[in-house]
């Protein structure tokens, strides 16, 4: 059973507004796993992933040092789906472009909330930077076909029980 998404499906899934889980190597101690944190991100099909963070954060330091990161997004509703991408950092915009910041806010908040959020956090324009990543490796799964198989089995079992 094929669970992988088509290129168009995976890119559209990634383009939809979801909270992403960013993962980056953390070599501060030899026995640490990667840093794994939820993030707002931007993506347009065929483009780069855009992530905003504070210039002096551990996340920014690790992203600069590693030069690459992974991002995983999922849909927890049944049937479950996810897209995971990994690739190199292609650019660091320092400071963040106010238009990019506004686009991210509007992506995750309704327009009134986004305006209030941007006004309340305007000082972040001085402290935030943007990392851009070109997706190089993709992992995807869409369990819809798998779940449909269970539904068929259940329907056949129920029909036989009558």
From TrEMBL:
Alphabetized InterPro entries for the sequence: F420H2_bilvrd_red/Heme_oxyg, Pyridox_Oxase-rel, Split_barrel_FMN-bd
Keyword presence, Magnesium: no
Keywords: Oxidoreductase
UniProt entry tagged with the keyword Lipid biosynthesis: no
Protein name: Pyridoxamine 5'-phosphate oxidase
């Amino acid at each position: 059973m094929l669970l992988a998404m088509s290129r168009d499906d995976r890119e559209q899934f990634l383009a939809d507004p979801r909270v992403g889980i960013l993962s980056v190597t953390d070599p501060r101690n030899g026995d640490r796993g990667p840093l794994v944190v939820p993030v707002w991100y931007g993506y347009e099909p065929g483009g780069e992933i855009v992530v905003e963070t504070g210039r002096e954060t551990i996340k920014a330091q690790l992203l600069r040092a590693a030069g690459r990161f992974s991002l995983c997004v999922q849909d927890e509703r049944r049937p479950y789906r996810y897209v995971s991408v990994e690739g190199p950092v292609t650019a660091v915009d320092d400071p963040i472009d106010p238009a990019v910041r506004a686009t991210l806010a509007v992506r995750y908040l309704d327009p009134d909330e986004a305006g209030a959020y941007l006004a309340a956090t305007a000082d972040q324009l001085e402290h935030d930077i943007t990392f851009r990543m070109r997706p190089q490796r993709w992992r995807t799964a869409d369990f819809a076909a798998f779940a449909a198989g269970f539904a068929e089995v259940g329907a056949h079992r129920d029909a036989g029980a009558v």
